[in-house]
């Protein structure tokens, strides 16, 4: 385009200055990087004796961080140039870089620093500098530095000033060479040609760039709304909502990058982070966890994390499915393991849940959680009462005191009950230890008697136990199991004499308890079998009653030895009891059709949340935190290891409120840093969160922010997406296209009545060729099919059809993306959440309704909004009735003139 002479001169000066600056920064970074001198041993030589290992380690970290940022600056010296004026009219130019700036450039600032926000503000905006000065943005250029053999250039620089722009300058360097060229060119032809290149180099507005590979695009500078969210303090519960392509994930990753860099945390935050680090021995940079709905999204984001200098290992980015299992199996003992322990077996399609549980998960959870707490408190009350009724006065008075503590505490005030019980702990412990010693003595005396009569007694018992059926050894009577739990040594030997001794003690105890409580031991249980085998070789009848009474006191007193642990560890078993009770009323659960030991994943969420919240409620109290090492609270310690300084969730609406609350409960209680993003219209699970109210249940102070500028899609595809929401009755959202961006594209293409795969494939191949012709290269392209089984056949057939053009099609089985090279990929629709492609083909959308009746509209919406510019849709029959009204949006192909294509010059 033509620009005024004045503007032109201005841009040329800008280009000259910017390129010089890029060169100097890069050179400085390079020399720092290669001069090898680092902060460290030499600096500290004089104070050598006082240098602690920690200090050296700290310096090593700083050195590494410095080297990393020099390396970034050498490649990319700056990402923006901003000119501001203060209130006196004094102008100042800032260069903004992605990383930590290098010394010696006073006007170079990190985007992560508060001043970095200047890069996101539009011209005319006011900004208060950290020193309190108020400045106005006069001019802004977004740079994309590129090192050439003969110096620096910046490609597609977007420049905006008060009196012109925004303009896109294809090459700043060309701008300068042209200046020279004009002076020296004498011939007219040369001049004419030069004029034309000048015009072509400057473009009005901002161009959309073509997505050329699979992976989240780099967006070094956010827009001002995204930027504001990205900078919000660490200690926040934030949820970004926004339609597809508004940059929610982009903002999330940028924010994580910034918040992991302690240099850019606020002072108070730095102190907190340091405190948590010393208390727990964690490193802030590693203390984060992000949840994504699919493995594929995780892979898709890997490079974006790398750009933020965040090593995104598999330990940090998880699907809930994997993490849930890990927590439930390895951390909290909810799921059974081969080595014993654990209550349940996880079954993905267990038919346990009724519609009520699926529709009202929050009420379901509340019902269980209240029930289990009451059950626990009830258990304590009963135990205290039993002690009050004991014969021994010492026990009675203890029972009395415990009873008073329990009655004084109001309902729901478990923390204070635990606090008061803590004071009684030593007495309870002493009592239990004394009683146990006496009762064990009695039992061992009886055993010795047997051994004196028959030295092989234990070996015979061991053989008998080995012969017992596995089922009998695991499916013990539930009451036995509960009582035995506390006596059994967790490292109990499993074989040989030691195991036999253990079994003997357990069986004899069970028998004694049964004598005292007049409750029979189940004959089919393991203990029952052993008792039968022992016959008269246990305790005498009188001893049984006496030992039994002592054991009952012990059992009841033990409830108060480590009440916190008992409370937390008992949750899975309480869940089983709760489920059994509710099953009878057909409340939340089906009455039958599944085993008591099996559990559905959504049920497991309920159990986990109950555990995590119970522990979290206690740990978040300052007095408990202070005393966490004392025996009263030590059961909470393992939970500390699961806390993370930051918890993030992408595509939050795919997770149920219960799952989100579990993730929220993993955020360290001192920092409470939680960041999620999502879009209710894109919910691809039947259990996913449906409303802001459900989100507010997760955190009452959840700060919900909306972003509305849709960057991904062309105008045509945006219009289609909005019409689709209207057609399928989704919740309408504010959405706008970015200003000054040429968002014009092409209409989506539709093929109906394509009954034969061959027809579909040849249509796809034609469209793909059209795209390649328009764009000049084949951009990132995806084909979505309805089922895993269709992935390979479609990929193969299309490969064949495209082989002439040497384009390779890759089948991404089970949502695995392989390699970066190929540009056409075939996916099963269920894996495509959160991704973006320049071109998307959606095969057989009319069949989708049959496959996913409950989520048909959501899949359609998420699928079609993955496309930036080209969207092709095929139907075996006709467009499904729900979106029939959208037919007018579609064309048949893209044989339109190239000038209409996005990304090409106007
Ligand atoms: N400020 C911005 N300026 C220009 N492009 C942007 C900006 N923010 C994001 N984008 C681009 O918009 C596209 C979509 O971004 P992103 O995937 O983060 O959106 P999203 O809201 O998470 O989408 P979805 O809801 O579909 O998951 C990306 O190509 C990204 O680079």
TrEMBL record:
InterPro entries referenced in this protein's UniProt entry, alphabetically: DNA_helicase_UvrD/REP (IPR000212), P-loop_NTPase (IPR027417), UvrD-like_ATP-bd (IPR014016), UvrD-like_helicase_C (IPR027785)
Pfam families: UvrD_C_2
Region Disordered, residue ranges: 472-495
Any single GO BP term: recombinational repair
MF terms (GO), sorted A to Z: 3'-5' DNA helicase activity; ATP binding; DNA binding; hydrolase activity
CC terms in the record's Gene Ontology section: cytosol
Keywords from the UniProt entry: ATP-binding, Helicase, Hydrolase, Nucleotide-binding
Amino acids binding ATP: 242-249
KW Nucleus (keyword) present: no
Ranges for domain UvrD-like helicase ATP-binding: 221-714
Bias-annotated ranges (Acidic residues): 475-490
Designated name of the protein: DNA 3'-5' helicase II
Lineage of the species this protein comes from: Bacteria, Pseudomonadati, Pseudomonadota, Betaproteobacteria, Burkholderiales
């Amino acid at each position: 385009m033509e620009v005024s002479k004045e503007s032109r001169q201005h841009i040329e000066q800008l280009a000259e200055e910017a390129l010089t600056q890029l060169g100097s920064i890069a050179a400085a970074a390079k020399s720092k990087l290669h001069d090898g001198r680092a902060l460290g041993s030499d600096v500290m030589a004089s104070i050598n004796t006082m240098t602690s290992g920690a200090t050296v380690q700290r310096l090593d970290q700083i050195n590494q961080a410095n080297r990393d940022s020099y390396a970034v600056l050498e490649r990319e010296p700056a990402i923006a140039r901003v000119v501001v004026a203060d209130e006196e009219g004094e102008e100042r130019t800032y260069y903004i870089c992605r990383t930590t700036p290098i010394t010696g450039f006073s006007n170079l600032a990190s985007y992560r620093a508060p001043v970095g926000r200047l890069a996101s503000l539009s011209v005319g905006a006011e900004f208060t500098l950290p020193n309190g000065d108020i400045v106005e943005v006069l001019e802004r250029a977004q740079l994309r530095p590129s090192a050439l053999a003969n110096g620096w250039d910046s490609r597609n620089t977007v420049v905006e000033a008060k009196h012109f722009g925004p303009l896109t300058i294809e090459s700043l360097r060309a701008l300068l060479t042209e200046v020279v060229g004009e002076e020296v060119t004498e011939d007219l032809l040369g001049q004419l040609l030069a004029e034309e290149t000048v015009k072509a180099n400057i473009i009005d507005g901002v161009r959309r760039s073509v997505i050329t590979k699979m992976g989240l695009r780099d967006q070094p500078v956010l827009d001002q709304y995204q930027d504001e969210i990205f900078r919000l303090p660490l200690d926040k519960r934030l949820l970004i909502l926004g339609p597809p392509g508004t940059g929610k994930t982009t903002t999330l990753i940028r924010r994580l990058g910034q918040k992991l860099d302690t240099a850019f945390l606020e002072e108070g935050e730095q102190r907190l982070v340091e405190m948590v680090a010393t208390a727990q021995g964690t490193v802030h940079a590693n203390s984060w966890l992000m949840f994504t709905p699919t493995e594929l999204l995780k892979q898709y984001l890997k490079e974006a994390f790398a750009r933020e200098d965040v090593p995104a290992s598999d330990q940090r980015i998880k699907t809930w499915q994997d993490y849930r299992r890990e927590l439930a199996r390895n951390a909290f003992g909810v799921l059974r393991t081969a080595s014993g322990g654990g209550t349940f077996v996880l079954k993905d399609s267990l038919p346990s849940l009724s519609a009520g549980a699926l529709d009202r998960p929050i009420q379901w959870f509340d019902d269980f959680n209240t029930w289990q707490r009451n059950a626990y408190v009830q258990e304590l009350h009963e135990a205290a009462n039993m002690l009050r009724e004991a014969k021994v006065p010492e026990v009675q008075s203890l029972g009395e005191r415990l009873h008073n503590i329990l009655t004084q505490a109001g309902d729901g005030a478990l923390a204070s009950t635990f606090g008061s019980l803590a004071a009684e702990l030593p007495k309870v412990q002493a009592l239990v230890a004394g009683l146990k010693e006496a009762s064990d003595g009695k039992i061992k005396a009886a055993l010795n008697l047997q051994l004196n009569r028959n030295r092989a007694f234990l070996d015979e018992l061991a053989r008998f136990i080995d012969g017992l059926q596995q089922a009998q050894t695991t499916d013990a009577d539930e009451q036995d199991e509960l009582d035995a739990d506390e006596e059994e040594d967790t490292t109990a030997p499993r074989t040989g004499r030691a195991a036999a001794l253990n079994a003997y003690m357990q069986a004899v105890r069970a028998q004694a308890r049964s004598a005292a409580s007049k409750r029979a031991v189940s004959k089919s249980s393991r203990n029952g079998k052993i008792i039968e085998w022992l016959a008269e070789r246990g305790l005498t009848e009188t001893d049984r009653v006496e030992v039994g009474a002592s054991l009952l006191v012990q059992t009841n007193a033990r409830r108060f030895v480590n009440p916190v642990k008992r409370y937390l560890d008992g949750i899975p078993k309480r869940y089983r009891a709760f489920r059994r009770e509710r099953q009878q009323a057909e409340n939340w659960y089906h009455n039958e059709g599944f085993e008591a030991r099996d559990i559905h994943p959504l049920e497991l969420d309920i159990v986990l949340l109950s555990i995590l919240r119970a522990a979290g409620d206690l740990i978040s109290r300052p007095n408990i935190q202070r005393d966490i090492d004392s025996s009263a609270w030590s059961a909470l310690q393992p939970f500390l290891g699961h806390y993370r300084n930051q918890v993030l969730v992408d595509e939050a609406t795919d997770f149920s409120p219960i799952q989100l609350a579990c993730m929220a409960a993993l955020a360290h209680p001192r920092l409470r840093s939680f960041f999620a993003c999502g879009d209710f219209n894109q919910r691809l699970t039947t259990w996913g969160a449906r409303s802001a109210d459900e989100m507010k249940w997760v955190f009452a102070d959840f700060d919900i922010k909306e972003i509305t500028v849709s960057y991904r899609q062309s105008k045509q595809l945006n219009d289609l997406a909005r019409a689709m929401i209207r057609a399928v009755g989704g919740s309408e959202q504010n959405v706008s296209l970015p200003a000054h961006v040429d968002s014009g594209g092409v209409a989506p293409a539709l093929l109906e009545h394509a009954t034969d795969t061959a027809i579909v494939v040849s249509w796809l191949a034609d469209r793909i060729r059209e795209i390649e012709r328009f764009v000049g290269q084949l951009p990132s392209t995806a084909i979505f099919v309805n089922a895993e089984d269709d992935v390979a056949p479609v990929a193969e057939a299309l490969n064949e059809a495209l082989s002439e053009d040497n384009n390779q099609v890759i089948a991404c089985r089970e949502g695995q993306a392989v390699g970066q090279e190929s540009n056409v990929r075939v996916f099963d629709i269920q894996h495509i959440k959160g991704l973006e492609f320049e071109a998307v083909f959606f095969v057989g959308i009319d069949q989708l309704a049959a496959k996913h009746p409950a989520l048909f509209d959501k899949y359609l919406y998420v699928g079609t909004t993955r496309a930036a510019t080209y969207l092709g849709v095929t139907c075996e029959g006709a467009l499904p009735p729900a979106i029939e009204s959208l037919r007018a949006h579609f064309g048949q192909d893209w044989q339109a003139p190239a000038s209409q294509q996005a990304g090409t010059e106007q």
